[in-house]
Amino acid sequence: MHEEQLESRTVHCPYCDTPFELLLDLSQGSHVTWEDCPQCCAPIQLRIEVSPTTGELASLELGRDDDVL
């Protein structure tokens, strides 16, 4: 993990709508992963899209565990 490729985003849980800080590792490129809500502990699906040319965050989608992202 490279510190210069870490990006912090404030997001809202798709279950309880609690805002929380999410630390994204952009060095992994585009990927799908899971994060538990710090408030309600529900599993949140994350689709992280990273630009292959710039290495910057292109898009971030959050969904419930049964959503298709």
Q: How would you characterize the overall build of this protein?
A:
This protein is mainly β. The protein has one domain (3-64). It has strands spanning 6-12, 19-25, 31-36, 43-50, 57-64. The strands form 2 sheets. It has a 3-stranded antiparallel beta sheet with strand order 3-4-5, with no helix packed on it. It has a two-stranded antiparallel sheet with strand order 1-2. β1 (6-12) and β2 form a beta hairpin. It is globular and about 35 Å long. The model has no long low-confidence stretch (mean pLDDT 92).
Structure summary:
Pfam families: Zn_ribbon_21 (PF14255). InterPro entries: zinc_ribbon_bacterial. Helices cover 0% and strands 52% of the residues.
State the distance separating the first and last CA atoms.
25 Å
Low-confidence stretches: none
Structural class: mainly beta
Largest sheet: 3 strands, antiparallel
How large is the count of helical segments? 0
Q: Identify the overall geometry.
A: globular
Overall number of structural domains? 1
Radius of gyration: 12 Å
The proportion of residues forming helix, as a percent range, comes to: under 10%
Measured by DSSP, the beta-strand proportion falls in over 45%
Quote the average pLDDT: 92
Which strand order do you get reading across the main beta sheet? 3-4-5
Based on DSSP secondary structure assignment, what is the total number of beta strands?
5
Q: Which series of helices and strands comes N to C? A: EEEEE
Pfam family, one: Zn_ribbon_21
Organism: Halomonas fontilapidosi
Protein name: Putative paraquat-inducible protein A
InterPro entries: zinc_ribbon_bacterial (IPR025990)
